């Protein structure tokens, strides 16, 4: 059965309102951790100038393909096998990378591998765009995020909401500079870095 995440229906329009202007001049996007594939289908319908390359760990590929097959869009690409810390990164270069709700699922070592990989495949001027909850100054931005973090860690002790400052330092190490930090509904943010 086709996988479905209600959260994607809830967050897709607020995300689109931020990424549409950010990706206006982009051509080729890599999505990391495409999950169900719902975001890929919705965003490529709304931004037909983009070629949107989905990716995820192999276990999610069948579901992503179901969404892509049904939508039958010209500008989506079948999922690449990309576990950020285990698989070889694509040889292609991208002018945009998008990832929603992934860095709090990944272990910290995987997040480090993800930022290094992103730095290696982003063109100069390209954008890395992350959506999700983040901590600032070591503090949760809401009680609901604190509860969510507990839930994440009970599920997998290596998961957890990441500090903005740590992510920004990883981006800087990869030659990326913060372009924007956008407030989103229900205590989420969009962080955007530009490759220098
Ligand atoms: C909470 S889901 C988010 C899925 C989708 N982006 C969304 O917003 O609905 C987290 C995603 O991160 C992916 N993920 C976790 N660890 C990963 C890794 N090491 N490399 C690549 N993807 C990973 C999972 O397979 C899953 O698709």
TrEMBL record:
Q: Which Gene3D superfamilies match?
A: Vaccinia Virus protein VP39
Q: Which PANTHER family does this one have?
A: UPF0585 PROTEIN CG18661
Q: Which SUPFAM superfamilies match?
A: S-adenosyl-L-methionine-dependent methyltransferases
Q: Which organism is it from?
A: Candidatus Thiomargarita nelsonii
Put simply, this protein is called Protein containing DUF938
Source organism, top-level taxon = Bacteria
Q: Where is the signal peptide?
A: none
Q: Name one Pfam family in it.
A: DUF938
